[in-house]
Structure formats: C-alpha cells, structure tokens
Amino acid sequence: MWDYSEKVKEHFYNPHNAGAVEDANAVGEVGSLSCGDALLLTLKVEPETNTIIAAGFQTFGCTSAIASSSALTDIIKGMSLDQALTVSNQDIADYLDGLPPEKMHCSVMGREALQAAIANYRGEKWQNDHEEGALICKCFAVDAVMIEQTIRDNNLRTVEDVSNYTKAGGGCSSCHEGIEEILTKVLAEQGESFNPEAVAGEKPKPKPKLTNLQRIKLIEKLLEDIRPNLQRDRGDVELIEVNGKYIYLKMTGACAGCQMAATTLGGIQQHLVEGLGEFVRVLLPIEELQRRAAMRA
Fold first, then answer.
1. What are the beta bridge partners of residue 172?
2. From the CB of residue 188, how many other CB atoms can be counted at a distance below 10 Å?
3. Residue 35 catalytic?
4. Which residues touch 224 (CB under 8 Å, ≥6 apart)?
5. DSSP string covering 29-90, please?
6. Of 26-30, 36-40, 50-54, 138-142, which one has max mean pLDDT?
7. Interval 91-149: pLDDT, tens
8. Smallest Cα–Cα separation from 272: which of 138, 176, 171?
C-alpha cells in the first residue's frame, strides 16, 4: 500500500473539477492508455486578461494521477497564463502534502498537460512535445527529451529517480544504460559526476513472496483504484480468475460493448504490472472473446 497523504486521498475520493470544461478554448493531452496514465486538461481562458477562469480534467490512471490532476485545476484557476506556466510538478506535489517518490511522474504529467493546453490556446507548438526525441524506454514510450528535461527540472541523480518521475526504466530495465548516459551528460554540464553506485545504493531487501490469496487481494485492490474512472462512463470490470501471470477480467456495463475495450485492458494491465511489481497479462474469458467475434461476424 502506498503511503498517501490525507489530501491525496481527499482529491482522489472527491476530485475537484472532474470532467471537460464547457466551451473550453485550451486543451492539453498527455500520456496514453497503453502506458497506464492519460490526462486531458481543458481550460477556459478569458481573452482580454489571459486569465484561466475554469479548468477541468479527465484522467485515466492511479490514485496519484487523479489527485494530481484535481490539485492542478485548483491551483491554476484565477491565474494568468504566464503565472500558470510557473507552476512546477513539485508545486503540485507540495499542494497535496507530498506524493510517494514512486508516484512523482503523476505530477510531471499534470505540469506537461498544462504546458500543452497553454500552447494550444496560443496557437503554438508545444515545446516539450517528445515526438522527435530518441525513444529510450520502449515499455513506457519515454524519450530522451523528456528524461533530460525532467532531470534538469527536478535535480535527479539516479536511475531510480528517473523511473519515479517519468516511469522510464520501471519495466524491463533494458533502458537503464541509456538513462545513465543522459544522467552522465546532464550532471557533467553541472560540474558533477554520475555515480553508478548511487543507482543501487543499499540492496533492497527482497519483497516477501505473496500467498495466492494475498496476491488476489492485491489485484482486487489495484482494480479498485481504477474502477471510479470506468464507472464515470457507466462501465466496470470484474475479476474472474488469476492463473499465474494470466489475469482474466470481465468487462461489464458500458465497457462490455465498447470499441475501446482493448485499449482499456491495456491500461489496466499496465496498472497491475506497476502495482504487482511483475509482468502479467490481462485477458478476457474465452466466452467473452467468442461473443465479441460473433458480433463482428
């Protein structure tokens, strides 16, 4: 279980400004469902004063992602666009009385959505758009531009720091060498040396192996984290079976016939991989696959 502050819990259970802003004239979208977190930020800006008079969000993600999005909309309402651009991901985390280190990437996502929305309003190309950067982490689609900028903005020193703030390196770990190269470059520019020993530090104690019952309860808890997002769209998900690395889910409500069900399952799978600390596959029961095939025939 993550050690969330009371304020994080408050914004998760009762998110502020959830949903799209009516007549929004600024839109910022970051993340992707396939990577487990996605945020759509909509703003209504008063043209004469360039003041943000309304802000709303739609987030698919964990507790920290929803709480960070909710906090961001509270922070920026009433600000001018220039003032809003000074809001950092650390400001979002501080507003929530802190985030677990492993969840700081959620505050980074909020900051980037804000920058994208303001660029959209001004008719500019978002300068932190990472499409042209060399892809470093294939598991979470994080490129060199994002990693380098996040290291600079947050004074990061280790691969673990980078994983906490961007998710890069948190999957198969094959990109750790690439992250180390970026850390070496940025720290050298600051007159510092990258210390490979700091990557590991003290070897963490191995996590105790969960019993089957404990593992199933953890999976159910992780599903509870994302269930509110599905229920807002009149959908839901039900755990059917756990067989080793294979987790079988049943989509219910509006999710049952949704064309985006595969994308939703991908997001759920990534959330479970992150929460369990192991690779798992999320699948639909065979009868559900047969039903969908019959519908397409």
1. none
2. 11
3. yes
4. none
5. EEEEGGGTEEEEEEEEEETTTTEEEEEEEEEES-HHHHHHHHHHHHHHTT-BHHHHTT--HH
6. 50-54
7. 999 999 999 887 888 888 898 899 999 999 999 876 554 445 577 887 676 788 888 88
8. 171
Closest CA to 281 of 252, 241, 254: 241
Provide the angle, in degrees to the nearest 10, between the axes of the packed helices 144-154 and 159-166: 100
> CA-CA distance, 166 to 155, in Å (whole number)?
13
Query: Encoding tokens for residue 124?
Result: 């500019």
Q: Which of 35, 137, 139, 255 is catalytic?
A: 35
The pair of structure tokens assigned to 115 is: 């920058």
Domains of the chain: residue spans and CATH: 6-121 (3.90.1010.10), 135-200 (1.10.10.1100), 212-296 (3.30.300.130)
CB 67 within 8 A of CB 97: no
Distance CA 71, CA 74 (A): 5
Marked catalytic residue, from 62, 106, 139, 255 = 106
Per DSSP, which regions of 181-243 are E strands? 235-243
Rounded distance between C-alpha atoms, residue 130 and residue 112, angstroms: 11
**What's the predicted TM-score (pTM) here?**
0.58
| pLDDT for the residue 280 | 80
Query: Tokens representing 119?
Result: 């660029």
pLDDT tens-digit series, residues 226-264: 889 888 888 899 999 998 888 999 888 888 777 777 778
Residue from 254, 269, 261 nearest 289 by CA: 261
Please indicate whether residue 139 is annotated as part of the active site: no
- Exposed e or buried b for every residue in 258-297, given b needs 16+ CB within 10 A? eeebeebbbbbbbbbbbbbeeebebbbeeebeeebeeeee
Helix (H, G, I), strand (E, B) or coil at 116: helix
